[in-house]
């Protein structure tokens, strides 16, 4: 199992548009393409960030999932519509993670 931590920097005053995009289709599309969403967070200190964690069986599942998602016509339509009033994100970061060898749950 590998994990993918995604950190999005949100354009000021565009958080609602991002949240609407997730709530109104992106979450369902992610699940459709095999994404295992562990959780989603927002900072408690008001930073314009959105953070979520995905779990993948392996690198191949991740590669296929992202490929299929990006080329899904429903995603392309949702992205275009949600950005009709301007971009939503200024930066996207992602980190591929695995458990540290010394940590035991």
Structural account:
With 105 residues, the chain is α+β, with helices and mostly antiparallel strands. It has one domain. Helices cover 38% and strands 30% of the residues. The protein has three helices and four strands, in the order βαββααβ. The protein has helices at residues 15-32, 59-70, 73-82; strands spanning 2-10, 36-41, 49-56, 89-97. The protein has a four-stranded antiparallel sheet with strand order 2-3-1-4. Strand 2 (36-41) and strand 3 form a beta hairpin. Helix 1 packs antiparallel against helix 3. The radius of gyration is 15 Å and the shape is globular. The model has no long low-confidence stretch (mean pLDDT 96).
Question: What is this entry, summarized?
Answer:
The mean pLDDT is 96. This protein is 38% helix and 30% strand.
Key descriptive features of the protein:
105 residues; globular; 4 strands
Widest β-sheet, arrangement of strands: 2-3-1-4
Distance between the termini: 15 Å
Low-confidence stretches: none
Question: Helicity level, as a percent range?
Answer: 25-40%
In this structure, how is the largest beta sheet organized?
4 strands, antiparallel
The best one-word shape is globular
Give the SSE string.
EHEEHHE
Query: What Rg, in angstroms, do the CA atoms define?
Result: 15 Å
* Total E-strand runs: 4
How big a fraction of the residues is strand? 25-35%
Count of separate structural domains = 1
What structural class should be given to the helix and strand makeup? Answer: alpha+beta
């Amino acid at each position: 199992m590998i994990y993918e931590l995604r950190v999005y920097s949100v354009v000021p005053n565009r958080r609602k548009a991002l949240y609407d995009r997730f709530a109104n289709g992106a979450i369902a599309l992610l699940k459709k393409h095999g994404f295992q969403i562990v959780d989603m967070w927002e900072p408690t200190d008001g930073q314009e960030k959105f953070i979520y964690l995905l779990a993948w069986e392996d690198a191949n599942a991740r590669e296929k999932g992202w490929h299929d998602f990006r080329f899904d016509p429903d995603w392309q339509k949702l992205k275009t519509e949600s950005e009709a009033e301007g971009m939503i994100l200024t930066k996207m970061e992602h980190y591929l993670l695995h458990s540290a060898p010394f940590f035991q749950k």
